[in-house]
Design a protein that fits this description.
With 126 residues, the protein is α/β, with parallel strands linked by helices. 18% of the residues lie in helices and 30% in strands. The protein is built from two helices and eight strands; from the N terminus they run E-H-E-E-E-E-H-E-E-E. The protein has a four-stranded mixed sheet, covered by helices on one side. It has a four-stranded mixed sheet with strand order 5-8-7-6, covered by helices on one side. The longest helix is centred in the first third of the chain and has 12 residues. The termini are far apart. 19% of the residues are buried.
């Protein structure tokens, strides 16, 4: 049997890692465990997963939905929540933007973080 390799986290690019880490701390309640001008990292509950952010001064946000000749989304983050209305208010208060195009009418909301990374908040079962 081949050894399974767990995913420990994802790395996002941003012009200012510290500022984006503050956004995700406010949105998720995760602890910032590393914080400097070129790299920041948040750790989820009980070390479940990590979001790292590296400095990329030429970061361009993706188009959502995709458009020809524009930076396309390479991936997005999904977060399961229990109250969509409350989570949406929390996301917007932290600095997220509700995306204009929402492919589902209920159960899921799509946002962009302050530098344009797309993420979804969804209810269990969606």
């Amino acid at each position: 049997m081949t050894e399974q390799i767990p995913l420990s986290g994802v790395v996002l690019d941003a012009p200012d890692p510290r500022e984006l880490a503050k956004f995700y701390r406010q949105l998720l309640g995760w602890e910032i465990v590393q914080d400097d001008e070129n790299w920041a990292q948040l750790r989820g509950p009980a070390g479940s997963s990590k979001i790292s952010i590296q400095r990329e001064p030429h970061h361009r946000p993706p188009a959502w939905p995709s458009e020809p000749d524009r930076q396309q989304m390479q991936l997005h983050l999904d977060f399961e929540i229990s109250d969509l209305g409350e989570a949406q208010q929390r996301a917007v208060s932290a600095g997220a933007t509700v995306m204009d195009w929402q492919p589902q009418e209920e159960g899921v909301r799509i946002f962009a973080d302050p530098v344009g990374h797309v993420f979804c908040l969804f209810l269990p079962g969606w």
